């Protein structure tokens, strides 16, 4: 769990720049950083490669003119949150922060705000998570299909537009809602899909972290190929590579 003081410090920093209705709240911040953590660093929209979209996202995409002091304060507070999330990810302790088995109206409101921030994080890396426009998946690519559908769930929840979502699933939901004597509005469709949020987050997280592990293993292998077994280990231990990281 992230230290709430870190989140509050970032929120206070944003409050010092613009009114509180012009920047993310704490739950939206949590969702945004969660999306960042599960996105591989080699994507164009990652915070390491392109921090500006993430900075703008905190202001709902309308980044104001900032003084040097404000930039430094924002970088420090956002950086502390980022490092805390990175530590959770490294320790394999980054978990969806809401227990939907105990979901009530108050928790649902907080979770929905989290989903808004998470959606923005996915949108910054739109091609990676949602695919290119007109993308056609092979029938055998079930994993990527699940990833795309999971990402589109958050698009639908945030925009109330389900035109790009699983059409069969939407048709089934509409039929069910009609059977209950109600009109299948987008709000009711969103409410019906909302319980799927935890599994959708898990699907996206498993995919993103799998690719990150594969990239790390590739980098480690390439590094090992360049280091002789009798050379000093690159970790700085002072031992030979073969008796340290290469053992």
Give a description of the structure.
- This protein is mainly alpha-helical.
- Helices cover 60% and strands 0% of the residues.
- Helix 2 packs across helix 5.
- The chain is globular, with a radius of gyration of 21 Å.
- The relative contact order is 0.10.
- The model has no long low-confidence stretch (mean pLDDT 88).
Q: How would the blueprint of this fold be written?
A:
Elements (H helix, E strand, L loop, with lengths): L3 H12 L10 H12 L13 H7 L10 H23 L14 H20 L1 H5 L11 H18 L7 H13 L6 H8 L3 H30 L21
Beta percentage is under 5%
Label the structural class.
mainly alpha
Low-confidence stretches: none
- From the spread of the alpha carbons, the general shape counts as globular
Whole-angstrom Rg: 21 Å
Mind describing the biggest β-sheet?
none
Ends: how far apart?
A: 35 Å
Order of helices and strands: HHHHHHHHHH
What is the number of strand segments?
0
Mean pLDDT over the full residue set? 88
Count of DSSP helices? 10
Helix content: 55-70%
